[in-house]
Amino acid sequence: YYLPNDIGIAALDCGEAFKLLSPKEKLYAHYLSRAAWYGGLVVLLQTSPESPYVYVLLQRLFRKQAPAQLEAVADAAGLSSEEYQAFLVYAAGLYANMGNYKSFGDTKFIPNLPKEKFKALVWNSQAYKESPGEMEALWNNCSHLLYSLEDKQKQLGLGDKGVTTYFSGNCCLEDAELAQKFLDSKKLSAYNTRLFKKESAGKHCYEVRLASAVKKDCGVEGEGETRCGTYDFDEAVFSVQRGDYAFLMEKVSQNLEKAKAYAASDNQKGMLEEYIRSFTYGSVDAHKEGSRFWIKDKGPIVESYIGFIESYRDPFGSRGEFEGFVAVVNKAMSARFAELVSSAEVLLPELPWPPAFEKDHFLKPDFTSLDVLTFAGSGIPAGINIPNYDDIRQTEGFKNVSLGNVLAVAYATQKEKLTFLEEKDKDLYIKWKGPSFEVQVGLHELLGHGSGKLFIQDEKGKLNFDKAEVRNPETGELISSWYKGSETWDSKFSTIASSYEECRAECVGLYLCLNKQVLSIFGHEGEEAEEVVYVNWLNMVRAGLLGLEFYTPESKSWRQAHMQARFVILRVLLEAGEGLVTLCESSGADGRPDALITLDRSNIHTVGKRAMQKFLCKLQVHKSTADVEGGRALYETYSAVTSDGSHDFLRLRETVLLRKEARKMFVQANTLLKGETVELEEYEATAAGLIQSFTQRFTEDAEKLEAQLLELVSIDAPCWC
């Protein structure tokens, strides 16, 4: 629950890419970045009750004294240099994760210095001297939870399983399920909502709160049909209200409006107008319209996306965490991805399910490699396939992006820190990890998330398949289930949807990286191509073992969708037998428990491919046919972490925790408006640099912004008890 003092911190280099933009493109990127950074603060309110208080406390400390100045205060307050570094690392971690829970793994992290030393630093600071009452109130509002490691507070979760601010503290899984049924009945998406429960006259009363700048719950001009109002549903009362995160949604909309003046095309203008409508009125339908314009905006120089996007951190799997990114296209790398897109129609039939289970038409997406300028939210991925709206992805299309400057620094590893591999594998791994991961990300995003059909019956009873013809390849019988009306993949598969889909996409990557044509597109031929395949598969099985860090035995739950997916794949490949993968426990040179994982490269194209073929087909059939029961049974069987069977995974988990390496944090640049020109301000790759980037991010309205954050968090404070 500590972030180590030597945690890796990397700067996201985008200076060269930014320099190549025209003045108009720089202004467009600047205002989009401002919208993203303001919206990113929503994540504090989506993570934990204390996160906004801790954020404001740190901002006030560092706005008055930069890390270098505060060091003398720390010394005078009795902190050792190690304790002060731990304080800086904690602050950097809070900024990088936009809260005090890790964005990757959802576990809490606490300061690695005594509470009284942290307090002494605050009390001796310039911020405290100038505003003692305010600083003491901030400390009192967060100091207990800042350090608390009670069982429930160790991780994010619903009810007694953990902490969440997507639901009030009195909600449990049954409330989430009932709310989903209500939302489906009103054709309302959960993406931009939170749920608050109260009791009134012996009835459960639920408030569904929509994220919007407008606070009025009546119909508003420009909105179209309103869904706000009070409804009786299944012996409960549901009230749909606007105004969650209102101040922040207003700031997002204002900056998108400014960006519109510098848009390069009508598609970009249309996209921004719809996003503004979405964040103003709390309309996911408007965000969908914006996403339609976004898909049509092919090959822009400045790429962006913003909104309530990924549902990994909602314990129920339906509500989106806010994120916004702005990036510049890397033309050389994008050319490779464009070639992969052109080959997609040849590669899709290679996937191991019948043609009826594939989309009727492959909607060729944009696939670009981007250098990130801004990525606001709780963490930065390596690649993205969006939008997440199934109805759009299935019939209108999507876009893929690979984040090149993230890939360049995020996964660089030193040999001495490489765990659980043989010495001969370590050198290969370091040499080929980058190129192999590039191939995997490309396949995962484009042909993983971009493949497979959902069988749907719309509200008028029309089917998008022939039910007298389509058979289940596993049983040979006609299919008997499908999605009906407003049901979606997320609403049907809820708690397992994210991880199951990541697993399917990872399997597609492993399966198709065996294809010589794919490897050739990425510039790999002959022996070199085989090394890329070997390291890609080796990386996956090692990642499956490392995934055990993200499993909580007490609640028997997984905290990270991708790592659960990789553990499932490890289990499938171990089960394949014939010496394909071996996993042994051992003792390390330091005498402590260790483990070794090996992969027989001669079996990858035979035993490995067959195992992936069989498993992928099952995953797709359950997904296509909305077979939640079968899909859940399959996925939960392979996700189980036990001491039974040929491997003691619970003991191996202890070994993984003993030897884990902390995930890197990223320092991002700021764009600054000087007259009519935009300048890029970059920072050093240290905890102090990361802190400085955040204190300089909101200079023009910091005090007002912090006051609004505190107001938003204090209104809901009684809801978390």
From TrEMBL:
<feature type="binding site">
    <location>
        <position position="444"/>
    </location>
    <ligand>
        <name>Zn(2+)</name>
    </ligand>
</feature>
<keyword id="KW-0031">Aminopeptidase</keyword>
<feature type="binding site">
    <location>
        <position position="449"/>
    </location>
    <ligand>
        <name>Zn(2+)</name>
    </ligand>
</feature>
<dbReference type="Pfam" id="PF03571">
    <property type="entry name" value="Peptidase_M49"/>
</dbReference>
<dbReference type="GO" id="GO:0006508">
    <property type="term" value="P:proteolysis"/>
</dbReference>
<dbReference type="GO" id="GO:0046872">
    <property type="term" value="F:metal ion binding"/>
</dbReference>
<keyword id="KW-0378">Hydrolase</keyword>
<keyword id="KW-0479">Metal-binding</keyword>
<keyword id="KW-0645">Protease</keyword>
<dbReference type="GO" id="GO:0004177">
    <property type="term" value="F:aminopeptidase activity"/>
</dbReference>
<comment type="similarity">
    <text>Belongs to the peptidase M49 family.</text>
</comment>
<dbReference type="InterPro" id="IPR005317">
    <property type="entry name" value="Dipeptidyl-peptase3"/>
</dbReference>
<keyword id="KW-0963">Cytoplasm</keyword>
<feature type="binding site">
    <location>
        <position position="502"/>
    </location>
    <ligand>
        <name>Zn(2+)</name>
    </ligand>
</feature>
<dbReference type="GO" id="GO:0008235">
    <property type="term" value="F:metalloexopeptidase activity"/>
</dbReference>
<dbReference type="GO" id="GO:0005737">
    <property type="term" value="C:cytoplasm"/>
</dbReference>
<keyword id="KW-0862">Zinc</keyword>
<keyword id="KW-0482">Metalloprotease</keyword>
<protein>
    <recommendedName>
        <fullName>Dipeptidyl peptidase 3</fullName>
        <ecNumber>3.4.14.4</ecNumber>
    </recommendedName>
</protein>
<feature type="active site">
    <location>
        <position position="445"/>
    </location>
</feature>
<dbReference type="InterPro" id="IPR039461">
    <property type="entry name" value="Peptidase_M49"/>
</dbReference>
<dbReference type="GO" id="GO:0008239">
    <property type="term" value="F:dipeptidyl-peptidase activity"/>
</dbReference>
